[in-house]
Structure prediction request, 499 residues.
Amino acid sequence: MSENTELNARTYNRLFVDKLMSDDLGQRKAAARGVDDYTRLKVREKGFARKILPAIPLTNDDLDKQIDTDANTKVFEMEPDSPGAMSVPYGGLPSNRYIRVGRYPVRFARLQTPRWVKDVSELRSLDMDVRQVVSDNAIDDMLAEEDGGLLACANNVMLGADMVVPETDTAHWRELAGGISRDGLNEALKIMPQSSRKFETETVLVNSIFVKDVQKWTRDEVGGDMAEELLRDGWAERNLLGRKWLTTIKRELVGDGTMYMFAEPKALGKFCVLEDVTMYLDRKAFMIEFFAYSEVGAAIANVGGVARADFTGISSY
Amino acid sequence: MALTQSYDNELNGVKGWFSPYALDKTADLAATSDEFVAGRVYSLNASGNLVRGLIDNAMPLFGFSKIEGFTGAGPAGQMANLSTHMSGRFYGDQAIQGTAAERVLCLVATGGYELETTEFTDAAYAPNALLTAQDENAGATSGVVEAGTFGADTICGVVSDGTATNNFSKSVLRFWPVYLPH
Prediction:
């Protein structure tokens, strides 16, 4: 850390402490707002769940009342499937089909971090910007919870590896032999459009270990320019095979040989935010406490928009 | 058809809860457990998951609420809500990721509360009577609070006011939670 950055961090900490210690309510609100503004910015930049299903902000008026629970709920509608057209002899009249619309609920839950407690005087001499470190960690934890939850939903609707989903007549989660090759990736990309719903993959999610195997590709597999670029610059989030590729370091959630595929958000479900990340902050004498919380709800409602390939035969540690 | 209401099965903290420092516990309901019913007694099993019913000499945990969600057959096949798939397991092993679990909030028997539950065996309860709860093998009545015997049962409460009818015309039993193994 440069001397200049250390001075800035100390200055920030001192200003933060001064504001926290102030009896002026306006000053304490300013301290809370400082943390709050920062965390909101990070939410948009980190985590992959909201890149797969863009967050829709909801207000109280958007919620739908439920009889059996006080839990906040939003009900969404599903496109009705069509029985198809048919050819008939002259004089034939159409059969009737009453229009019914499927609905599904998105229930909300609160995410929160631990309550962080500190004797405020111990902040005075810290060289790092403790607000940034703690709030960064807090936000990362909350986003990881969202990310893990979304993948758990995807796993749930796909039923399991190599299991045929009755409604789409195909296995959306498959184990593919042969390692991470150009052929293998294209085999994976076949999974989703092979279902009766015929969606194409829009977003691919893999971990940072997976891309190391892609970087091994030679001129034979990716062509001259890209082979050179991969060798020189390594992988960066990019479009490949016509899809948007997201790379995560969360190996706990996405295994080394695993490739998740998602259709466009409209074909997948909804991700709603009722209360975005908010920082609660309070001071009692010389003790401060703060924690972050949010209220989100999401659902994967169409298995036709999800696929997963687990490549076997790759080295993992 | 009777309408199900949020207060049909209820645990109510008469005294001592809510407090931001109250002793509560959130954990996953075990896959083998009977379904969550608010107001009943739960225990942590050897894996750290909640089971409905009072395991012998286990710390009694009184079920307050759960994260609501819907996972099951939807309008276009299986659907899943995020709310019931977030379980704070990111820092755990990958083998435990990607499975749904019901997150349940309980009030711990050693916390400083007076509680009121709709989940008790219909009987007369005098103040200071000891309470226990049916274990996880009791089926439909697992976790239901009932009279206990000192030295023979795991005691989970002491009757305070006894039974009453609450503002929703539901019978409730009011007690102080305690933990007394045998």
Observations:
- Chain B has a mean pLDDT of 90.
